[in-house]
Write a structure and sequence with these properties.
The chain is an alpha+beta fold. It contains seven helices and six strands. The protein has a six-stranded antiparallel beta sheet, with helices on both faces. A hairpin with a 7-residue loop joins strand 4 and strand 5. The two termini are 14 Å apart.
């Protein structure tokens, strides 16, 4: 939890309070580009620049990878930075460096879906319930009543509360646990919570749509896009994929 580098964190970890960025609408090309970056990594060649349709304004963003609907990695930057760099970095971080999962393998590419969230409109909430389900994501910050020097932080994207049919109280209590606090959740603890709410624009794409998009751009001379011989799977890898520490997919 505390060993993650600042700015490159699973969604349950650190977020900078009070930071905001202009609203940028997520588009499929952002997810296509993440696929391109990951495939180029596996091929050992540098990626092309991001598509012209992708804005390069400063933004906070998260990238998530799914294999047949199961989360395989999700990491983001909570501090706004140029989106092209953000997407390149987070595409690889989420695929290779999410410590909850084994690193994604090249042979998984055809089964992957990429999800991109661009975050904006960060603002402090008046209290722990001053946010709207389905509209806001939130990050909480609080200290241990018994050890005030010990602090915790955790974040959920807007889609989490709706996907898991959470009430506001459910979300706050789950975030407390997700932040690493294992003590009793008392009223005193709840009253210590500071909430920052934010909004997000979200898009996803699958591998085939990425292939079709780059073929339409006539970039097949830059990246070999045809299916390649599948890597030999091992029992250990199969266990990694099916187990993946049985992460529940909440981000």
């Amino acid at each position: 939890f505390f060993d993650e580098p600042l700015g490159l964190v699973p969604m349950s970890d650190f977020i900078s309070h009070g930071e905001s960025s202009l609203a940028i609408t997520a588009i499929p090309e952002m997810a296509h580009y993440c696929f391109h970056v990951l495939e180029c990594h596996f091929k050992g060649i540098p990626p092309m620049p991001a598509p012209a349709a992708v804005a390069n304004e400063a933004a906070a963003a998260f990238t998530g990878w799914y294999n047949k609907g199961q989360l395989r990695g999700c990491i983001g930057s909570l501090s706004p930075c140029p989106l092209h760099d953000n997407l390149r970095g987070r595409a690889l971080d989420a695929a290779l460096n999410d410590t909850r999962f084994a690193a994604i393998r090249r042979s998984e590419l055809p089964d992957l879906t990429c999800n991109v969230n661009v975050l904006h409109s960060f603002e402090p909430a008046n209290d722990r319930y001053d946010w709207t389900i389905g509209k806001h994501g939130l990050t909480i910050h609080f200290s241990d009543p018994q050890r005030p020097s010990r602090s915790y932080k955790a974040t959920y994207l807007p889609s989490v509360m709706t996907k898991f049919e959470m009430t506001k109280d459910d979300a706050i209590r789950e975030l407390i646990k997700k932040g690493g606090y294992h003590g009793t959740i008392t009223e005193s603890l709840l009253n210590r919570i500071e909430v920052t709410r934010f909004q997000s624009s979200e898009k996803e794409s699958c591998y085939q749509k990425y292939l079709d998009y780059y073929r339409n751009l006539r970039l097949t001379d830059v990246v070999h896009l045809e299916p390649e011989e599948k890597e030999e799977e091992t029992e250990g890898h199969a266990a990694d994929i099916t187990g993946s520490r049985k992460a529940n997919g909440r981000r």
